[in-house]
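Exercise 7. Given the components listed, write out the predicted structure of the assembled complex. Treat all entries as one system.
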Amino acid sequence: MPLLVVGSVAFDNVQTPTAARENVLGGSASYFSYAASYFTPVRLVSVVGEDWPQEYTDLLASRNIDTAGLQVLPGAKTFRWTGKYLDNMNDRETLDVQLNAFEQFDPVLPENFTRCQFLFLANGSPVIQMKVLEQCTGATLRVADTMDLYINNMRDELLALLKRIDGLVLNDSEAKLLTGEENLVRAGHKVREMGPRFVVIKKGEHGAMFFSKHETYVMPAYPTENVVDPTGAGDSFGGGMMGYLAEQGDFEPKTLKKAMAYGTLAASFTVEAFSLDRLREIEREDIDRRMEEYQRMLSF
Amino acid sequence: MPLLVVGSVAFDNVQTPTAARENVLGGSASYFSYAASYFTPVRLVSVVGEDWPQEYTDLLASRNIDTAGLQVLPGAKTFRWTGKYLDNMNDRETLDVQLNAFEQFDPVLPENFTRCQFLFLANGSPVIQMKVLEQCTGATLRVADTMDLYINNMRDELLALLKRIDGLVLNDSEAKLLTGEENLVRAGHKVREMGPRFVVIKKGEHGAMFFSKHETYVMPAYPTENVVDPTGAGDSFGGGMMGYLAEQGDFEPKTLKKAMAYGTLAASFTVEAFSLDRLREIEREDIDRRMEEYQRMLSF
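Answer.
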């Protein structure tokens, strides 16, 4: 089944302790779409500026990502993020953010997009996320991501959104910030009580946790010694997870658990290179091979 | 098979964000022994002062822990540790350490102890650990723990020990300190290259990682919302792990993996109360019930 994602597409400047890249393809919806495309056709809604190269649109389109919703804003530049990773590769500093075109993002969905049953609202303002939600009259699974900026500055709007979605994906520090709870198990269930039927807390190199009314579980990250650039790992996690759900066409507990594992593995590939470089090298069978290994790792 | 452990027995004063306890039974070998006792008979070697209450010896003895090697040092006081946990319950400050009797610890093993095949050198000076190792002529599986103090101040002695043991258990910050490597997968294998055939890196609430020449895997911690006091979690991990190995009487890869899971679960009980309080409430069947749940959690 097709999967709809609404979020940012950006140029990134990234520094790690050992290397740096400028002007690479980034943004939550880029990573999400690309990771999801291994599983299902994707429909992307985002906005870019006039500096956006056709080459990147072609790249996405080549992966069965429908870019009809990728708006080019006249006279604007594309969103640009500059960040630097510290030695541990978990902590990062945002050095500069130029929202540019993304600041004026006011998505109007192509009519056929509104009938998508699987919807992911990638990281963005909860006001925009709500606007998209209201257009998506066909959605049966509505999952969102969020971040500290909106938890701190648009809390009411975020809380309103939480009552309208089925799932929320956020990272550990965001879950603590949203709930004031240091214990992640308690934090996960507290977020769930704010509305969504399930909550996923991403813990970076430590994996991810899942919470629903009747289930609490943890999955470790796939252990890799080759962490080149963690940018986009969380968005790739979302893409792998939602892509598998859309492929299966359901969101039963069993499917959700396997989707969590696919999310974990999609993220594990993304961190092995800058930008989408590692994902561009692999096929679905590489993910499935790693899945076999991952399942073996967790059997005893 | 009996399991020999040599390490500290102490009185702890513990503060957490919500509660405090003074004068409770602590020390690496206490937690280790008690956790291991669910699986196999334990032989304990340690030293205490004249203030040590018979009641604690009785408690250990009641769990099939042989205390013939628990020396009472005349005129001395028992090792005392005072610590405080920060809000996240992962970071802690040591407020005070009084080594007391433990400063003069010079273990001479009862003759029948030296024939134990399964040996655990709990956290302590690598010089003392080496002395014990040399007495343990019957040991076929020799596993040690260590800490930042010895990595910083007795590095050569520690490196000499590493060449003589089969396994090392240490936490994530210690693995980074020992190897200068921020990536834990690389750190684990670097430690392994220093001597031991396998290495276990404990990550607190994020679980544990295992490294041997042909295997690298991660196990998440059992998710619990009821973290009362993390003291002794790592030692209980060691006890559950080594206890299961000694019970099975082998250390094949398959047995080691299940032992890692039992270590994880032993730790998950320990953190649910101060001191040994939670362990004292449970039976082996409680651990096995949690094991079933844990295995279900990791199946998809």
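Discussion: The longest strand of chain A covers residues 65-72. The longest helix of chain A spans residues 253-270.
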